[in-house]
Design a protein that fits this description.
The protein is α/β, with parallel strands linked by helices and about 200 residues long. It has one domain: Alpha-Beta Barrel (TIM Barrel), CATH 3.20.20. The chain has an eight-stranded parallel sheet. Helix 5 links the parallel strand 5 and strand 6. Helix 2 packs across helix 3 and helix 5 packs parallel to helix 6. It is globular and about 45 Å long.
Length: about 200
């Protein structure tokens, strides 16, 4: 399991300190912040994931700085990324974001449609499907949290077992944050996104 440091609104100095301390995997919610902070982090070895929604008009800016886009929730945006990456090496790592809680305020494709989208994304040139991401339900109910995370694990297992083109590497489960990491880990999280647990409450 890996810890992803969620660096939304964090100053570059704090991010640099975290990377130096061993936090080599960071995640940003906004492409604008990726583009603003990226030049000041190039001297430090790290991976940068996009963990917020990606708009079509931000694809080029995102591709300059990210090693993985965790928030693919439509074939359209995956095709846009593919068109920019085809023929280039290495392939861009991507994950399908699933709205496992089916809350209208959350991004992500519906669980019932996730396996089909994953198969379509996995077959696109220039992309490598690495797994699935979800944001847990807004609740302190451990049973509900566990069900949501178990749902993502089930989707992952279904897709990998399908043996479809490009699905063999789709093993990652990016789920759980500072407030519910124990439940996510119990359901098999391979990446846990930590923000406040590392940096404290953010300013915005």
């Amino acid at each position: 399991m890996r810890l992803l440091l969620a660096t939304k609104s964090q100053p570059v100095a704090a991010i640099r300190a975290a990377i130096v301390a061993g936090g080599g995997l960071i995640g940003e919610n906004r492409v604008q912040e990726l583009a603003a902070k990226g030049p000041e982090l190039t001297d430090l070895p790290h991976e940068a994931h996009l963990i917020g929604p990606l708009q079509s008009n931000k694809v080029n800016a995102a591709l300059r700085w990210v090693t993985c886009v965790e928030t693919i929730d439509s074939l359209r945006i995956a095709e846009r990324l593919s068109a920019r990456r085809v023929g280039l090496a290495p392939a861009l790592d991507v994950m399908v974001q699933v709205n496992t809680s089916e809350e209208p305020t959350k991004s992500g494709i519906a669980p019932a449609a996730a396996a089909e989208l994953a198969a379509q994304v996995a077959a696109l040139p220039g992309l490598r499907l690495r797994g699935f991401m979800t944001v847990g339900p807004n609740t302190h109910d451990a049973d509900r949290l566990r069900r949501a995370y178990a749902s993502l694990r089930g989707i992952r297992d279904q897709v990998v077992a399908s043996a479809g083109p490009g699905t063999a590497d789709a093993v990652e489960l990016s789920m759980g944050m500072s407030g519910d990491l124990e439940d996510a880990i119990a359901e098999g999280a391979t990446i846990v996104r930590l923000g406040t647990a590392v940096f404290g409450a953010r300013a915005g």
